[in-house]
Design a protein that fits this description.
45% of the residues lie in helices and 19% in strands. The chain contains seven helices and six strands. Strands 1, 2, 3, 4, 5 and 6 form a six-stranded antiparallel β-sheet that branches. The longest helix is centred in the first third of the chain and has 16 residues, at 27-42.
Length: 192
Amino acid sequence: MRPSLLPLAAVLMLVACVGPGLANGFSEDLRALATGRIAEIVSLPQVVEAVRAQNMETAAFGQERIDELDRMWRAEAESAEQPMIDAVMERPLSLYLAEVQDASRGLFTEIFVTDARGLNVGQSRVTSDYWQGDEAMWQDTVLGGPGAINIGALVEDDSTLTVQSQVSVPVIDPESGQVIGAATFGVNVERL
């Protein structure tokens, strides 16, 4: 085996031994990343302000409106015309998150931030859906309160040949101390 493949091979062996959806052998390192670098990123004013602004727009949305927006997003993801997706991807927060991902040198594979309803506020890459509120990563962090962390299972990404885990944390309003949204970071565990 070539030396450059040894770390990937070791990680893949760990995934194979542990199995999909079971204990994440990188949980300690991922938790440290969540409470350090990731916590710093999600507490920056541009992140907090973007979430606050969208919360003002979406606070009154009922589930029917949320489902409609999610259906629109999913349809656009399969289409050449993507006005809703383009609008989100052109937001200052999305551009900032793309810069953070690029600067991470492969550590972060994706970053997305959601509001208090679970709707995307900004993202570094296009997500498959617009509403994250029905997913454990969002529910555990938003409903878990300040300090909550959700660490996903290890998953092999066939397109990038990397082993990843999603790390989700709440976005906290520094004035009230309340959870106002959530952020999820795809983390390439080979780069920890």
